[in-house]
């Protein structure tokens, strides 16, 4: 027997053994789900071995580690990624085929770990993959939510949210660490005994560790994602239980354990509730205790903490860590304040993911006093010392100090978490070149005046393992044949494709891959919506959270324009197009939900209009998430990245789509700008106002009505929507959406960009008609996406922010 067939024979034996031992079924009776669990157990055992070895290595080398603190990790499924990292995909496929199933069917049985909302959470998951792949000594820390991102169903065109009990049947990928548990305290008051502060807390909950192993690729190293579960202290439970009051016992248990129950399903809309603050402190307090305990075990002192520990704040959500580290160092380890503050600043770094002022987190001082009284005192002291220093920089400028202050004194006093993060960190970064520039020019301008060197840029990236290897096996094998397989860990190698652009045989192979990915996507569309679409159409894709600034509504305006034009000129040479949307709206976000409904209403009219046929289809794929994205990205021709310039911090879907050979139609915003710089102006469709023009127009008094009056097709489209053409049973349904554009100031300037958007869509059509020209540009896009690997991003963080050498 060859070595590979020995490997698959032994893997098959291992699967059968796990079916019997862990799953508890005979090999003959195993269902797809049973097989999924058994294969996972086999992979888990091998990963566990790597985990133990990596830990031992990092411990003995006294490595400097990075700890990535994040409220969100949008991991998706683990199976395919784990098998690929272990190099046992083929053997596993053979193993399950003996049971008359395909590996794909088996992998599909795994629920997504959807512990995040959108871009920020998925970025954290891509980063973990890259940290492991680069052998970076690292941990992710977060919350083990019992319920992740809600599942979205569409009922008569409207979004309905269902809970996501992803843990209901257990997950084979977690390792409960029964012995790792830390107390987390809340409430009460502070007693000052001379110099010493003592926090007399009023409540305590236990944080229990659950680890997920994050395998690296082309390395035996793994990283750890440690998630905390809140557990009521046993003694508390028992007190009520022993008196026979079971109802009360359950209630007390719930009050404590609700901390890790559910992910806040808000994205860039403030959450503002006490439970959210408790979640933030809960996972930060547990993580800091764990990190310090490990540090003391390895180094015996906290004096060198910043030399061995880098803690990264993924947005302001874990910002309370700054106050918590100060509290632990000063109150619990009796370190002098000044020394603790030096350590603190040198330990933390912070990434900002949004410019929109309404999305910046603040907490009422009164709430902080109630939940975390000692932390509030510490924040006040940090603020006093900081403002004293700042006052020397610009004496007498009270506006400057008021803007810098950690406390917003206008109206109800509030703690500004972004300001706390900046003051407590040695580095602050944005997530694209434009975003990082705008940070220092706008919302953080005062801080940048004070500390210009603190601010930097780290352009986002995505992991090529999930977003190319795994999601697009067809393109991955074409790449392997054409340029070798090293691109998986050195994405710059894609550049080699440029020499193939004029090779007709290669172009045909490339087109064939796209065509089969589109057929797969079309099948998913039919399964999930009942709508049949032709893979010969141009697949025009906008997938992301539904938010006004992302302007899904502008896309709909174009679709209706096209519909009206087709009706007016039915015999023109129309490029058949399928416009595809997917994404979730925050449950309380009325306008976003209304946009979802409009998409459905417009879709029913267009898709059922016999005059239109295949010339135009409009579909909304329900329940967007990581696994659905893995089907959509490879099947897209056109990537819609159409946020108002200056509002999308970076975007990462734009990178995934271009990496899979879609051309971008987009504004001069976020990472679109860097995509343009890399692929070249001729290989991307950029339209609309640029950031300075947006700002100037806002200042000069923007008049949306002028565009309505001045553009006949725009007027016709808006009149059709507001007149009820798409909602005849309730003609006024979309009046509020249209009124917000015409009378409400059109905050995101859809009408200002409409004309240029529609004109650019016509250019898209002309290029698509020349299928060879289109393919050339798509290939050039793929060839130039190397820089958008999260390996590049993480190598840059490691070098410039965390001070940890990597092999990249
Ligand atoms: C405060 C809370 C309710 C909250 C929760 C989640 C606020 C914001 C978020 C999520 C923000 C987010 O996902 N931002 C996105 O981060 C990506 C990664 O950097 C960027 O590519 C994207 O432009 C940005 O919108």
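Sequence proposed for the structure above (808 residues):
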């Amino acid at each position: 027997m060859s070595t590979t067939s020995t490997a698959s024979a032994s893997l098959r034996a291992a699967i059968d053994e796990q079916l019997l031992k862990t799953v508890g079924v005979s090999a003959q009776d195993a269902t797809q789900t049973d097989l999924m669990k058994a294969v996972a157990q086999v992979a888990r055992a091998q990963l566990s071995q790597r985990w133990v070895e990596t830990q031992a290595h990092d411990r003995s080398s006294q490595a400097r580690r990075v700890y990535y603190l994040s409220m969100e990790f949008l991991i998706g499924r683990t199976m395919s990624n784990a098998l690929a990292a272990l190099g046992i995909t083929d053997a596993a496929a053979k193993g399950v085929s003996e049971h008359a199933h395909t590996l794909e069917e088996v992998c599909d049985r795994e629920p997504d770990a959807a512990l995040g909302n959108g871009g920020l959470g998925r970025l954290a998951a891509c980063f973990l993959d890259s940290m492991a792949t680069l052998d970076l000594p690292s941990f992710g820390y977060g919350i083990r939510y019992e319920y992740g991102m809600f599942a979205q169903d569409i009922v008569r065109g409207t979004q309905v949210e269902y809970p996501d009990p992803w843990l209901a049947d257990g997950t084979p990928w977690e390792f409960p660490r029964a012995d790792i548990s830390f107390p987390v305290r809340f409430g009460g008051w502070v007693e000052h005994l001379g110099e010493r502060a003592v926090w007399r807390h009023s409540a305590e909950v236990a944080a229990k560790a659950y680890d997920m192993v994050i395998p690296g690729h082309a390395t035996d190293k793994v990283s750890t994602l440690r998630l905390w579960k809140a557990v009521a202290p046993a003694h508390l439970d028992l007190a009520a239980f022993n008196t026979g009051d079971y109802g009360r016992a359950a209630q007390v248990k719930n009050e404590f354990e609700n901390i890790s129950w559910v992910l806040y399903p808000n994205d860039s809309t403030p959450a503002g509730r006490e439970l959210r603050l408790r979640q933030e402190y809960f996972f930060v307090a547990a993580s800091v205790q764990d990190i310090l305990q490990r540090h003391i075990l390895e180094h015996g002192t906290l004096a060198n903490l910043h030399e061995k520990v880098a803690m990264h704040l993924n947005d302001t959500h874990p910002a309370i860590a700054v106050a918590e580290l100060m509290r632990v160092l000063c109150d619990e380890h009796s370190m002098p304040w000044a020394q603790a503050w030096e350590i603190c600043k040198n330990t933390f770094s912070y990434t900002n993911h949004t410019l929109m002022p309404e999305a910046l987190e603040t907490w009422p001082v009164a709430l902080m006093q109630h939940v975390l009284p000692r932390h509030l005192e510490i924040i006040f002291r940090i603020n006093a010392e900081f403002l004293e220093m700042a006052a020397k920089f610009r004496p007498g400028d009270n506006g400057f100090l008021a803007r810098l202050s950690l406390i917003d004194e206008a109206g109800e006093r509030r703690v500004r978490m972004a300001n706390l993060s900046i003051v407590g960190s040695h580095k602050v970064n944005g997530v694209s070149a434009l975003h990082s520039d705008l940070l220092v020019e706008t919302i953080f301008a005062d801080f940048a005046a004070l500390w210009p060197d603190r601010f930097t840029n780290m352009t986002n990236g995505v992991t090529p393992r999930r977003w190319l290897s795994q999601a697009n096996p067809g393109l991955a094998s074409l790449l392997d044949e054409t340029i070798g397989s090293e691109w998986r860990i050195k994405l710059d190698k894609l550049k080699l494709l440029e020499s193939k652009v004029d090779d007709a045989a290669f172009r045909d192979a490339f087109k064939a891959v796209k065509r089969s990915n589109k057929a797969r996507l079309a099948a998913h569309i039919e399964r999930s919506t009942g709508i049949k679409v032709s893979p010969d159409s141009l697949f025009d894709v906008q997938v992301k959270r539904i938010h006004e600034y992302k302007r899904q509504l502008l896309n709909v305006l174009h679709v209706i324009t096209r519909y009206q034009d087709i009706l007016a000129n039915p015999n023109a040479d129309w490029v058949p197009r399928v416009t595809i949307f997917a994404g979730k709206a925050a449950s309380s976000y009325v306008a976003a939900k209304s946009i979802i409904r409009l998409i459905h209403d417009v879709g029913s009219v267009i898709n059922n209009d016999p005059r239109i046929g295949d010339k135009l289809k409009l579909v909304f794929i329900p329940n967007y998430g990581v696994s659905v994205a893995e089907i959509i990205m490879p099947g897209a021709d056109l990537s819609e990245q159409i946020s108002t310039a200056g509002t999308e911090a970076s975007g990462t879907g734009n990178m995934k789509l271009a990496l899979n050979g879609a051309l971008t139609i987009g504004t001069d915003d976020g990472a679109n700008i860097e995509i343009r710089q890399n692929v070249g102006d001729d290989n991307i469709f950029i339209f609309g106002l640029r950031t300075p023009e947006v700002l100037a127009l806002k200042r000069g008094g923007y008049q949306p009505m002028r565009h309505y009056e001045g553009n006949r097709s725009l007027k016709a489209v808006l009149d059709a929507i507001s007149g009820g053409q798409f909602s005849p049973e309730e003609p006024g349904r979309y009046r509020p959406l249209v009124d917000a554009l015409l009378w409400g100031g059109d905050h995101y300037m859809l009408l200002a960009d409409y004309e240029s958007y529609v004109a650019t869509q016509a250019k898209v059509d002309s290029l698509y008609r020349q299928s060879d020209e289109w393919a050339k540009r798509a290939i050039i896009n793929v060839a130039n996406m190397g820089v958008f690997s999260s390996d590049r991003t993480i190598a840059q963080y490691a070098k410039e922010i965390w001070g940890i050498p990597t092999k990249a």
